[in-house]
Write a structure and sequence with these properties.
It contains 18 helices and 13 strands. With 688 residues, the protein is of the alpha+beta class.
């Protein structure tokens, strides 16, 4: 990696400061110019926004006033319409010189055409129609006409001799008609209608003067009133119908909606332009302030840059020096911060890498010592392989691996432990010795030299096989492999060195462990029969008795003796006697449970410990073994040796003894009785 020297950094720093000063001065000048231009533009845009707002309000007032007068006939609405039209013309005149594009001017011209079209085709006809049909005129006329019909009915009833009720109804109807005609007169807009209503008033006055005394004349008056008001009803209905048609849906009315949309667009355009200009102006002011603040800071930085750089250099060198002293004192956790890529940073990274290697080597050495101590203290192969798998996973965290041991038949290597997430695919369960180059060559072998046949084909990554050697003999193989997804797909020289060291410790420890297991087996096994010996019996029986006493489980003991063994030995020779003893051992190993303990007590005597078996079960087991032995045919070099019988004594804990010696004495006494009672039988011990 290319590094940048300290001198280059200092020079670059000065150049950057000078460049910043030039850029700052230029920025101040540009900001001042932009601020002045923004102020002028803001004034123009403010006028545009004001004119646009007045234009939008004028259109809204004109449309609202016209519609209100058309619906209600209120004079205030008509005044609002008139004022809105006047404001519209003034706003258009103010807005026209402020437009800055041909598209906007074309839009304003289009809006004026639509507004004029609305005035001519919608507002004018609707206002005229409302003036011809004032609000409430049709209803008032209908009411008066209904009263005339009622008056006519009253005049026609009992015309010859009117009753008091008829006279009273007539007076009420005439008075009501007068009031209703007054209401209609106040609403009637046309001179013809007012003249007709004056005739109706004259007829009402005549009806009041006649009274009910002239029924024929009253009927004639009612007929004339009917004609006058029915005509006014038709006129009012026609005017109202025309007004409703004008107030209904109209394609021409949409022009005012378009005008309003255009005014809103002008208003929105002004607001947007105002926001933009305000933003530009604020940006220019902010830039000017920022440059005014930054420029002195840049000059100050220019003066103190050298001091800061020198202090940082001194601090970095001091930090590396202190970390080196700590490493020499045994502190492997201290690291140096790395900043940049100059000479000091390169030195700091080199120190950190060295400290990491030293710490890794120290950790590896500690784990190797730990593994060696634990392996030397292991009592079984299972304990040892569990320790190897756990510590090997720590020594090779980014690798998978396994340990293989050669079987007793030396025709196969079986895996005794494995580690790593991908171990099942890269570490097989077993393979033949000739499939591994490390065993064939007698030294560590990498897969890139020649692929071992026990590895996947095609290979998924680099691997290493190291033979495990004990007392000069190969006893197994250590396999280390890089998984496919590993960040380090190849094996380094350090991996190979560490694997070789680990293999040496594992081979030595497992060889010693196998030797100890062989010696221990020889110390507790009878070499002739393969059964446990008397020493193992004396160690095991007290322990089983304690377990039975603690758990409350039964325990029984069977003591066997080969009948007439001395005569058999004298007759057929010692080789035949050894053959018989081996046959008894084979019988006991095959007929008993895995948890039962069969021992050669001495000479031709055997003892079987049946943990968890009551007296009845032990008695049945003893008879089964005696029967099986009785039917066993022995032959020595082709010569039949005759039948062999067993005598047995059975004792149970705690009925026949609560200690090992007492229990064996009871079983021996029962065996003696079996001998005394004719041999080839099973006797139960007497109660203690």
């Amino acid at each position: 990696m290319r590094t940048r020297s300290l001198l280059a950094k200092v020079t670059l720093g000065y150049l950057v400061c000078i460049a910043l000063a030039i850029v700052g001065s230029t920025s101040v000048y540009r900001a001042l110019n932009q601020s002045q231009a923004a102020e002028a533009q803001l004034a123009t845009v403010g006028k545009f926004v004001s004119a646009g707002g007045r234009l939008s309000g004028a259109v809204l007032d004109a449309a609202t006033g016209e519609r209100g007068f058309a619906v209600t006939g209120a004079p205030a609405s008509l005044d609002l319409y008139t004022a809105g039209v006047g404001s519209y013309d003034a706003a258009v005149a103010d807005l026209r010189p402020l437009l800055w594009s041909p598209e906007q001017r074309a839009q304003l011209a289009r809006m004026q055409v639509l507004f004029s079209q609305w005035q001519t085709q919608v507002a004018g006809p609707e206002i005229a129609a409302r003036r011809a049909a004032p609000a409430g005129l049709a209803t008032a006329t209908q009411t008066a006409y209904a009263t005339v019909l009622g008056l006519r009915k009253v005049a026609a009833e009992d015309a010859a001799a009117p009753s008091p009720s008829t006279l009273q109804s007539w007076a009420i109807e005439v008075e009501a008609l007068r009031q209703q005609l007054t209401a209609v007169t106040t609403l009637e807009p046309s001179p013809q209608g007012l003249a007709a209503l004056q005739q109706a008033f004259a007829l009402v006055a005549e009806a009041e003067q006649l009274g009910p005394g002239a029924p024929g004349r009253l009927v004639a008056i009612a007929d004339r009133l009917d004609g006058i008001l029915s005509a006014r009803v038709k006129v009012s209905a026609a005017n109202e119908s025309q007004l409703q048609q004008l107030l209904g849906p109209s394609t021409t009315r949409s022009s005012i909606d378009q005008v309003r949309s255009m005014t809103e667009a002008f208003d929105a355009l002004g607001q947007t332009r105002l926001s933009q200009e305000l933003s530009l102006s604020g940006s220019a002011v902010y830039q000017a302030k920022l440059v005014a603040v930054v420029a002195p800071i840049v000059l100050i930085l220019l003066l103190v840059f050298a001091l800061i750089l020198s202090r940082r250099l001194v601090a970095s060198v001091r930090e590396v020096s202190e970390a080196s002293s700590a490493l020499a004192a045994g502190d492997f956790t201290r690291r140096v911060r790395t900043r940049g890529d100059d000479e000091v940073a390169v030195m700091a990274r080199a120190y950190n890498a060295m400290a990491d290697r030293v710490r890794a080597q120290t950790d590896e050495a500690a784990r190797l010592r730990q593994m060696s101590d634990l392996l030397q203290s292991s009592l079984s192969l299972g304990e040892a392989t569990e320790i190897i798998g756990r510590i090997a996973a720590q020594l090779f965290p980014d690798r998978v691996g396994g340990v293989y041991l050669i079987t007793a038949s030396r025709d196969q290597l079986e895996r005794v432990t494995a580690w790593g997430a991908d171990a099942p695919g890269l570490v097989p369960a077993a393979f033949a010795p000739d499939a591994c180059w490390a065993l064939r060559r007698g030294r560590a072998h990498r897969s890139d030299e020649a692929r071992c046949r026990h590895l996947p084909d095609p290979p998924s990554g680099a691997s290493l096989c190291v033979p495990l050697v004990a007392q000069g003999d190969a006893i197994g193989v250590l396999l280390i492999a890089a998984p496919p997804a590993s960040a380090a797909p190849t094996l380094s020289a350090r991996d190979i060195e560490l694997a070789t060291t680990v293999a040496g410790q594992i081979g030595l420890a497992l060889g010693n462990l196998r030797l100890r297991e062989t010696l221990r087996g020889q110390s507790i096994r009878d070499a002739l029969t393969g059964l446990y010996n008397r020493r193992y019996l004396e160690e095991t029986l007290p322990r089983e008795l304690q377990r039975s006493a603690r758990t409350g489980q039964p325990l029984s003991v069977i003591m066997f003796d080969i009948d007439l063994f001395k005569r058999f030995n004298d007759t057929f020779g010692h080789d035949a006697g050894d053959l018989m003893l081996r046959e008894v051992g084979t019988l006991l190993r095959t007929q008993l449970r895995a948890e039962d303990v069969a021992c050669r007590y001495g000479g031709e005597e055997f003892v079987v410990i049946l943990a968890g078996a009551p007296l009845e079960t032990a008695l049945e087991r003893a008879r089964t073994l005696s029967e099986a032995m009785r039917h066993t045919a022995l032959r020595d070099r082709g010569q039949p040796l005759g039948a062999v019988t067993l005598s047995a004594g059975v004792a149970a804990f705690p009925a026949h003894g609560d200690t090992g010696d007492a229990l064996l004495r009871s079983a021996d006494a029962a065996l003696y009785h079996a001998k005394q009672n004719g041999r080839d039988r099973v006797e139960v011990a007497a109660a203690a």
